[in-house]
Specification:
Layout (H helix, E strand, L loop, with lengths): L2 E5 L2 E4 L4 E8 L7 E7 L6 E6 L6 E3 L7 E6 L4 E6 L8 E8 L12 E2 L3 E6 L1
Parallel strand pairs: 2-11
Antiparallel strand pairs: 1-3, 3-8, 4-5, 4-9, 5-6, 7-8, 9-10, 9-11
């Protein structure tokens, strides 16, 4: 059974930083692409960042380019999202997800999801 568990969310002031972590189990981690999505109240789920199976290729949503960095550790079965220069509009529940296919920005392509972690950025 595949499990994804996010951690690292919390309350931070605008301009601050947070690092989200996602621990994966029940899957051969190096065979799945990983993504981070977020969903704010009343809004659709939004692609934030994705990373290929090897970690060589990454992709970011336009709203976070230059501020967020995704990385992974295929030994520890972990994926991370370093979030810098946070803005109030980054406030959302952040989800990590695993895709058995190639890296994708579409949430429909992802097979497994974590429970989410809340990030709140105060102005």
């Amino acid at each position: 059974q595949v499990q994804l568990v996010e951690s690292g969310g919390g309350l931070v002031q605008a301009g601050g930083s947070l690092r989200l972590s996602c621990a994966a189990s029940g899957v051969t981690f190096s065979t799945v692409a990983m993504g981070w999505f977020r969903q704010a109240p009343g809004k659709e789920r939004e692609f934030v960042a994705g990373i290929s199976r090897s970690g060589v290729n990454t992709y970011y949503g336009d709203s976070v380019k230059g501020r967020f960095t995704i990385s992974r550790d295929n030994i520890k079965n972990m994926v991370y999202l370093q979030m810098n220069s946070l803005k109030p509009e980054d406030t959302a529940v952040y989800y990590c997800a695993a895709d058995r296919g190639v890296l994708s920005t579409s949430s429909q392509r992802y097979h497994y999801w974590g429970q989410g972690t809340q990030v709140t950025v105060s102005s």
